[in-house]
Specification:
Peptidoglycan-binding domain 1 protein, Cell_wall/Cho-bd_repeat, alpha+beta, left handed beta-beta-3-solenoid, three-stranded antiparallel β-sheet, 26 strands, Lysozyme, elongated, Phage_lysozyme2, repeat
Length: 362
């Protein structure tokens, strides 16, 4: 039986009357580290044989369990608002043996998901990130760029956790990027693609993807859409606001499946695709055409579908189509009340809306 004594504010452990030093496991299978020189219980970060361990500095509730001062932590642990991973079992990695409680760094795979933990103190985004800290956002590793989710989010029907490495198509601030889904001779899984063409999208040296379409073709399509809705009585402002959103959704391409396989389709990326295909079939129309998809949007207006006023943007579909407000503002209305994406903060759509207004409006 272990006996704990607090002396001058520090804790010491005794067994059979003798002070304990080094690692000790109590009757509840909790590990503690006692200074080999004097037996003082360690708290916070401690380096042992060139490996870092963390012992709780205060009583902590975590994962439905109570952890006590001095107890060795393992698993995901948040320290000073930063996340670290401490091995939960003895692990072989990169030709080295890592022990329970040891702080991990570099790439780690947990439950089939990849995370990156800084291998050294790093300055990034005007902040200091410490060795072992979990990285988030865009991160450059060995001259290659990766994206680690900055918050838990749903994508393609799956939940992706904060810090998890993204793969496939991702849209950030209205810009599309492609992160390789598998490792090959020329790239690693999760690495950002550059200077290539994938799924009909041209990817530049910065990783930004744009549709492989001639600008004239997009403009011609936009003119057709503009003409259709002008004849239906929409204002130029509202049409161009919608075009700005279409550019973000599909590149103003009617026969366009959602990039990354998310299930959307068409100019405004109806999700699921069956919304537009079933409606077109019922009306004897070709769902792939611009004309059919414009007719569907007009039908939605006339039948109170898809577009719903919100507290932030208290405007219904009819009011939207008659509005002469700034196209940038109306682009915000459309994305929030019609598209309703996971992240509606996409200011680039307002820029595109203004560009279409300058190009198409009389």
């Amino acid at each position: 039986m272990l006996e704990w004594k607090q002396i001058n504010g520090s804790w010491y452990c005794y067994k059979d009357g003798t002070i304990v030093k080094g690692w000790i496991q109590d009757e509840n299978k909790r590990w503690y580290y006692l200074n080999p020189a004097n037996g003082m219980m360690a708290t916070g970060w401690t380096q042992i044989d060139s490996r870092w361990y963390y012992s709780y500095t205060e009583k902590t509730e975590k994962d439905g369990d109570t952890h006590y001062v001095g107890e060795m932590a393992n698993g995901w642990t948040q320290i000073d608002s930063r996340w670290y991973y401490l091995y939960t079992e003895k692990t072989e990695k990169d030709g080295d043996t890592h022990y329970v409680g040891e702080m991990a760094n570099g790439w780690i795979q947990l439950d089939s998901r990849w995370y990156y933990l800084y291998t050294k103190t790093t300055e990034k985004d005007s902040d200091t990130h410490y060795r072992g800290e979990m990285a988030t956002g865009w991160t450059q590793i060995d001259a290659k760029w990766y994206y680690l989710y900055i918050e838990t989010r749903e994508k393609d029907g799956n939940t992706h956790y904060r810090g998890e490495m993204a793969t496939g198509w991702i849209q950030l601030d209205s810009i599309w990027y492609y992160l390789y889904t598998e490792t090959a001779d020329s790239h690693y899984k999760g690495e950002m693609a550059v200077n290539t063409t994938i799924d009909g999208w041209i990817i530049d040296s910065s990783g930004v993807a744009t549709l492989n379409s001639q600008p004239g073709n997009i403009t011609d399509t936009a003119r057709c859409i503009y003409s259709f809705f002008v004849k239906k009585g929409w204002t130029s402002n509202s049409i161009c606001a919608m075009l700005g959103n279409m550019q973000g959704e599909s590149g103003i391409v009617a026969d366009m499946n959602e990039v990354g396989g998310g299930g959307g389709y068409g100019l405004v990326q109806w999700t699921p695709k069956s919304i537009i295909t079933n409606w077109a079939n019922q009306n004897g129309l070709d769902y792939r055409t611009v004309d059919t998809q414009c007719k569907r949007i007009q039908w939605e207006l006339e039948n109170g579908q898809q577009f719903f006023a919100t507290r932030a943007y208290p405007m219904n579909f009819g009011q939207f189509t008659q509005s002469t407000a700034d196209p940038t503002y109306l682009a915000e209305v459309f994305i929030n009340n019609y598209e309703r994406p996971y992240n509606p903060n996409q200011p680039q759509r307002g820029v595109w809306a203004e560009n279409w207004y300058n190009t198409l409006a009389d």
